[in-house]
């Protein structure tokens, strides 16, 4: 009979000893991100080849490429250049050669930096890409400028 008692005591101990109840709590982890629009621009050189004969002029064109974070509206302005008033300078002779930059192939719409007046507006595509063309023209060489290497630098400003 002794073995039966030992067995019933073990069953009684198991019945009265229940495991601790599991508890839980919850919190909310808020997730956010700020994605800012961004754009970068690059421009190819705008080159002219001009001879020294009277009334000679030359045309050129260059691409301006935009890479933005997505489809983005933009406005592009071109300043008057480092030599002022859109003039290329031959540093050896000190002579200048006037030129202009246009937003159309007919070279009739000046591309400048007066917002909403002579700037160029557009939108980057779904991949954030846009390519524009700057059309350049020198004025007739009525002064017969000397042979040389004339240069200027125009700042391209992209507002988006």
Automatic annotation (TrEMBL):
SMART domains: SCPU. Residues 27-157 form the Spore coat protein U/FanG domain. This is Spore coat U domain-containing protein. It comes from Qipengyuania pacifica. The lineage of its organism: Bacteria, Pseudomonadati, Pseudomonadota, Alphaproteobacteria, Sphingomonadales.
């Amino acid at each position: 009979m002794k073995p039966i008692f030992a067995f019933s005591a073990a069953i009684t101990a198991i019945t009265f000893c229940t495991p601790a109840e599991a508890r839980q709590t919850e919190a909310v982890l808020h997730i956010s991100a700020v994605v800012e629009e961004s754009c970068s621009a690059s421009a190819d050189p705008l080159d002219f080849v001009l001879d020294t004969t009277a009334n000679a002029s030359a045309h050129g064109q260059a691409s301006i490429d935009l890479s933005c974070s997505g489809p983005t509206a933009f406005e592009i302005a071109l300043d008057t250049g480092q030599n002022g008033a859109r003039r290329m300078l031959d540093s050896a002779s000190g002579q200048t050669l006037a030129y202009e930059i246009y937003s159309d192939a007919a070279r009739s719409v000046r591309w400048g930096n007066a917002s909403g007046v002579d700037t160029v507006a557009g939108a980057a595509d779904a991949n954030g890409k846009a390519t524009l063309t700057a059309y350049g023209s020198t004025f007739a060489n009525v002064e017969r400028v000397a042979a040389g290497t004339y240069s200027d630098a125009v700042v391209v400003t992209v507002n988006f």
